[in-house]
Amino acid sequence: MNKLLEINNLCVDYVSPNGVARAVNHVSLSIAPGETLGLAGESGCGKSTLAFAISRLHKVPALISEGEILYKGSDVLKMNDRLLRDFRWNEVSVVFQSAMNSLNPVITIGEQLTDVILAHKKVSYKQAYERAVELLNIVGIHADRMKSFPHQLSGGMRQRVVIAIALVLKPKLIIMDEPTTALDVVVEREILNELYELKQKFGFSILFISHDLSLMGEIADRIGVMYAGNLIELGQASEVFGNPQHPYTKGLISSFPTIHGPKERLYGIPGNPVNLLNLPNGCNFQERCTVCVEECQQQAPQLISVENGNLVSCHLIR
Ligand code: ADP
Predict the structure, then answer these.
(1) Which of 30, 162, 204, 266 has its CA 20 to 30 A from that of 177?
(2) Which protein residues are within 6 Å of ligand 1, measured from CB?
(3) Residues 258-316: pLDDT tens digits?
(4) Helix, strand, coil shares, percent, the chain, to 5
């Protein structure tokens, strides 16, 4: 596979007086040009930590303790400040959770977009303004809104503005961490459809992070599922969503309503996620797993390729 981003054996730890919590544990994955990779899992499983680490935006007490992040073959962890700045703006854009609330409340959205363009491109104010109008149009907002302040826009519109800012420098990869979680389902759908169209037009890749697997089944090419810092299943979206192998993935899918299809009873996953400071021996999911056997309490399962092509880490699936 042609790889735009390749993460090998990445470990990210949070170091505190209470101990070391490993939020990302030996995670390896890659993203191809133009691909949408979904990353799912309950809150606290390490998705955002991974997203911050990829863009090297992680801050103390987070520490990348092992592994490498290769972008077009260059190691992001070894980039100097100049290369990193270039990487962050020209190559990768990040839309973080609730990013719509990060817009400056006292500056019009037109000015905010124009400022970003002026800060990164050698263009005149007029050219930057025109580009800002164009970008707003691309995300479905009329030029009239250039003079609006953030509070005059709906949540969905503000999130579109943030996506427009992310597109300023035509990045090759956009990392989106729960980009639509704060929005209602109708607006969420509209934004995802638009995102899909933008992707077709510009050809960027997306790392799409969400706790909602059913949403992911709709937009991702491949899906990875994380649990307690580990990648526990990875495969084609149709296989992970339609034919999940890991008991945790099955649990996640049956705990979310599907957007299409018949009404079905939802089943939650019993228990709570494990405490990263006090992990059990063996599989991290054992206490909540309905099919756990003795081996699961003794040895941590490895991520291996199984019959449907998914990578799965479960002793019971081979
Ligand atoms: P997700 O994005 O999947 O909700 P996060 O990456 O935010 O998960 O967090 C993963 C884990 O990392 C959390 O369960 C928590 O134990 C730990 N963690 C996150 N931020 C901090 C922090 N600032 N200090 C200590 N531990 C943290």
Answers:
(1) 266
(2) 14, 16, 21, 23, 41, 43-49, 61, 276
(3) 666 666 666 678 788 899 999 999 999 999 999 999 999 999 999 999 988 999 999 99
(4) 35, 25, 40
Report the separation in Å between the CA atom of 228 and the middle of ligand 1, taken as the mean of its atom positions.
Answer: 10
Give distance in angstroms: CA of 100 to centre of ligand 1.
21
Amino acid identity for residue 241 in this structure: F
Name the residue ranges covered by the structural domains of the chain. Answer: 5-91+171-312
Is residue 58 within 8 A of residue 12, CB to CB? The reply is yes
Q: In whole angstroms, give the CA distance from residue 71 to residue 45.
A: 24
114 membership: H or E segment, kind and range: helix 109-120
Give the CATH number of domain 5-91+171-312. 3.40.50.300
Q: Determine the distance separating the centroid of ligand 1 and the alpha carbon of 186, expressed in angstroms.
A: 29
Does the pTM surpass 0.90? The reply is yes
- The token pair at 233 is 């299943």
Structure tokens at 52: 């911050």
Q: What is the pLDDT of residues 144-154, one digit of tens each?
A: 999 999 999 99
Residue nearest to atom 5 of ligand 1 (CA): 46
The candidate with the shortest Cα–Cα distance to 9, out of 66, 47, 58, 52, is 66
